[in-house]
Amino acid sequence: MPLYLRELSDNKKTFFIWIAVLIVMNILSFSVYPSFADASSDFQELLQNYPEAVIKMISADQLDFSKILHFFGMEVYLFITLLGSIYAMILGSGILAKEQDDKTIEFLLAKPLSRKNIVNSKIMAVFTYILVFNIILFISNYALLEAFKRDEYSLKIFMVLSLGGLMLHLTFSAIGLFISSIIVKVRAAMSISLGIVLGMYFLSIISSISDRLSNLKYITPFKYVESADLIANGRISYTYIIIMIIIIIFFTSATYVYYSRKDLQ
Fold first, then answer.
1. Fewest C-beta in 10 Å: which of 81, 180, 224, 242?
2. Residue ranges of domains in the chain
3. pLDDT tens-digit readout, 47-67
């Protein structure tokens, strides 16, 4: 418990910076919605001149941008999924690696703490921050939807989108934890994590615009919780939920196994 509380304290500054940046970006995005809604017909006409690949990439063929929930799915949800996933990976990938990088691992092991206790505390801290991160985003985005709405929207679909963001962040944080268990240097771990998130996002775009590469959607978590699909179907595919749960369990378990056996320098 003391190590868990220490991790919460050590990571609170980064947490507040990321959540503040995201909330500000969401406010700025919502602030342009009234103008966007007024010019939606002109925007739809303009889109007719765009290549089909671009239209698919921004889901313009599935979303009606005059509706606030569709606008949320196009603009705000992008920030939540992409930037939130980067935060989740950075948080997870640095939390174990920093002990060796900062030379504090000897201090921890000198205490009556097993490696399992250390990993438990680290994982609990990561998942706590991811949960609080998404709760704050849910509350703030709900308030913004209510403030800027022009017509009624589906609260159920908004909750599905919020759950999609949470599942995505948990998935990437679990991958980050495993990276943190095998990489000693924090900078290297974070660089790898950033590359994985951006690479997965790029694959999700490619799978959207190319029918020949559509099978890539199964290897990128961004595709599992794509806003256009969630809004159209009103739920997350059970297949994708199972895949994400398996990824979370697998990488969390792998973190325990590898960290308990590795040689700590």
1. 242
2. 2-261
3. 666 555 555 555 555 666 778
